Amino acid sequence: MPLNTLALQASDLSCERDDRHLFSDLTFSLSWGECVRVLGPNGAGKTTLLRGLVGLNHYVDGAMRWSASVDGRPPFLYSGHKTGVSAHLTVAENLRYLVGLSGVVLTDAQVDEALASVGLTGFDDSLGSELSAGQQRRIALAQLYVEGMPRCWVLDEPFVALDKKGVAELERHLARHCALGGAVLLTTHHEPTALAPRPLMLQGAA
Ligand SMILES: Nc1ncnc2c1ncn2[C@@H]1O[C@H](COP(=O)(O)OP(=O)(O)OP(=O)(O)O)[C@@H](O)[C@H]1O
């Protein structure tokens, strides 16, 4: 497949952690317009794989080729199982910090708009520590509503702590993103209903 149709090409990946083989011979691609869901039981290595792909650990060996980035910025947006929200920053500061990792600087109006998209209007000045788990998750997810962010999203358990309405809205948002030519690589124990991701099973090493 021509590389410009791919957000990611990963070949012959293998992973050993603490002398345990988690997976091997893993080859897959993520096309633009596609959502891929990494599947496997607890401890199979889903988080390890995602973190390895985005350069947050060195446990994963093999060839990983992301689509070209713009202006040297990261070619992907990563949001982890832990939200990365600081207890000591306000909601607006947290959002500015998270999108800043992708080289994006927000106007006040853009902050308001993104927070409104995730139901956090009026919480701009609240500290991260003053928010519930679901609200903290929503701060991290607000990045997905900001224009100019990378179009390839790597999301580790993005539905965790969200209420029913939040889950449905996020599913719709991810489906919309892919329909508009974005790409999503995620892991989740939640069974999506409005999203039909292509499964990628971590089988474990032979
Ligand atoms: N902090 C850690 N220190 C040492 N080993 C770890 C640590 N976190 C995970 N591991 C090891 O790596 C393996 C893969 O963990 P990982 O978190 O990638 O699994 P997972 O598939 O994402 O699991 P889950 O479905 O429970 O989130 C685990 O089986 C465990 O042995």
From TrEMBL:
Keywords tagged on the record: ATP-binding, Cytochrome c-type biogenesis, Membrane, Nucleotide-binding, Translocase, Transport
Keyword Nucleotide-binding included in the entry's annotation: yes
Occurrences of domain ABC transporter (ranges): 8-206
SUPFAM superfamilies assigned to the protein according to its UniProt record, in alphabetical order: P-loop containing nucleoside triphosphate hydrolases (SSF52540)
Entry annotated with the keyword Nucleotide-binding: yes
Pfam families referenced in this protein's UniProt entry, alphabetically: ABC_tran
Domain of life (superkingdom): Bacteria
InterPro entries: AAA+_ATPase, ABC_transporter-like_ATP-bd, ABC_transporter-like_CS, ABC_transptr_haem_export_CcmA, P-loop_NTPase
Protein's name according to its UniProt entry: Cytochrome c biogenesis heme-transporting ATPase CcmA
